[in-house]
Amino acid sequence: MSSTPTATPTAPPAPPPVPLPALGAVVAAALAEDAPWGDLTSEALLPPDVRASAVLRARVDGVLAGVDAVSAAVELAAGATGGSGRVEALLADGTAFRAGDVLARVEGTARAVLRAERVALNLVQRLSGIATLTARYVAAVEGTGARIADTRKTTPGLRALEKHAVRCGGGSNHRWSLSDAVMVKDNHLAVLAAAGVDTTTGLRSLRERIGHTTRVVVEVDRLDQLDAVLAAGVDVVLLDNFSLADLRAGVERARGRAVVEASGGITLETVRAVAETGVDVVSVGALTQAAVALDLGLDVDVRADDRARTGR
Description:
6-stranded parallel sheet; 312 residues; 4-stranded antiparallel sheet
């Protein structure tokens, strides 16, 4: 039996869409990589006006993410081939589905549909795999009050899409880049110590040099580092690779003073125990690093194409 959460009568709030410039750039680059001089097979074999219909069908249970990438691939491929193409999404991103479900319908000139096929599948399979794995982590901590969050351990060039997929699975996004939050990690603290600056003084000085709206996150890997960090008035303490006992102790020390995040080697088997220590956030690099592409297929509807050719 699949552990993937099933759809409920009341759907969860839809995750925000991937920004169109980011989506278009990714899909355009992927299409250029896959057909740098065109699709030799389709262009030699198929007349330009032959049309094709296809369905995006699930072969396993999962959670959908990336249907906009399918649409973008078909539309851009249609433009590149001088043809036409459109996608009708039957399920929205963030929706759970079962094996055999039809997720979307694709229609257009055959050259456009076939040029888009592999790129569309690569993206929707990858993103749905991330959404599905995230949903399993979210389900595992249900009732604890802890959030599941991603990290910056994303595929280069695909961060906007992969973080969207995490949202589709019910997870939260950590910082998007080095530019949008202050996160002091172990190497930063080591450099401070080597320069003879104590942790509390260094962090207080940091606070004076950033805007009042910027949150400060500090990673510690030992419990004895925590008091000096909390004394600086940081917003979030990230307890990295702590034992369950040390996590509980860290939560108690930080209560009412900072948000507490746990990270480091957390798996589906261990995430519930980590969440039950009382941490506010559990960040999991595996959401994007270990997700397996979901088995989805884009199958040409031969009967629909026969009807189009014969007028039946």
